[in-house]
Amino acid sequence: xxxxxxxxxxxxxxxxxxxxxxxxxxxxxxxxxxxxxxxxxxxxxxxxxxxxxxxxxxxxxxxxxxxxxxxxxxxxxxxxxxxxxxxxxxxxxxxxxxxxxxxxxxxxxxxxxxxxxxxxxxxxxxxxxxxxxxxxxxxxxxxxxxxxxxxxxxxxxxxxxxxxxxxxxxxxxxxxxxxxxxxxxxxxxxxxxxxxxxxxxxxxxxxxxxxxxxxxxxxxxxxxxxxxxxxxxxxxxxxxxxxxxxxxxxxxxxxxxxxxxxxxxxxxxx
Length: 270
Hints:
CATH superfamily of the largest domain: Transferase(Phosphotransferase) domain 1
Helix content: 40-55%
Number of helices: 10
CATH topology of the largest domain: Transferase(Phosphotransferase), domain 1
CATH class of the largest domain: Mainly Alpha
CATH architecture of the largest domain: Orthogonal Bundle
Strand content: 15-25%
Strand order of the largest sheet: 1-5-6-4-3-2
Largest sheet: 6 strands, antiparallel
Number of strands: 11
Radius of gyration: 20 Å
Shape: globular
């Protein structure tokens, strides 16, 4: 069994023997609940936290992923390791409070990850949607594009890909926000992958997801080019010439995602 807890958080439990059992029974506001996984917000000593509890995926899910040539995610370990990796890379994310795992059988393994609630933040999805009513200053938009592009570049240069790399998974700190003071947090790392080097197809998936999620926020072609300049960290003309395949595949994937979403919305309105 693995059990790592912030010492101050640990002190909030009277029974120090059965900590794992108590944590797996924590109650609060449920944000997401699947058959074998639950995310909830809870309070402890007037502090708010989020916990993701994994109750075992079952052999059906394990074999389904293996048949699709994908490694199954059988515990919260994936997110635990991703948060630690982002901390090493100095990429801001939710503060890790605790992680626990028990069980050898991958289909029945129980686990949890606890993070401190981010306060005073807005998702970039909400921030950018507001631009449709009131455009941001050019300086602020330029700096924000640079910040997001550099986060993406640092992730991929250090072997990390997010797999759900959308605007909604970036949080912008509201306090004193300006073009000279932008702090972003990246979260929801449940499916993140860590390798020595990020394969091209996974870089494309991440950037396509980001592009797709920004298609309706009023970005111009010049804004997209600015992102590419910061992401590839080189001459824009060389990037456009040397990365043609990458850019074509990324745009194609993003457009397919966009069309799929619009088709789904259309069906829901019928």
